[in-house]
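Page 37, continued from 36.
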């Protein structure tokens, strides 16, 4: 049976200095406003693969299962 996930897109521009607060554990969750206006909260650690020298920037799609559990985070052009 094919699992259907809820996918929500958002843009993010987070400086390296701001990301350090998440990395150091000062802040644990990221809160963003999706393109559809919805507020999304997810663990900051999920952004780690996208961190570069100037922070985390781009357009992303986050997927949740039917229980609102995190499934994946992808950057797109």
């Amino acid at each position: 049976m094919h699992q259907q996930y809820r996918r929500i897109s958002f843009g993010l521009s987070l400086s390296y200095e701001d990301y350090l607060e998440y990395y150091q554990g000062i802040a644990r969750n990221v809160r963003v406003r999706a393109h559809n206006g919805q507020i999304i909260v997810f663990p900051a650690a999920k952004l780690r693969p996208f961190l570069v020298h100037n922070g985390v920037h781009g357009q992303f799609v986050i997927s949740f299962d039917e229980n609102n559990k995190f499934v994946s985070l992808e950057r797109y052009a």
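The radius of gyration is 13 Å. Flag for discussion at group meeting. The mean pLDDT is 90.
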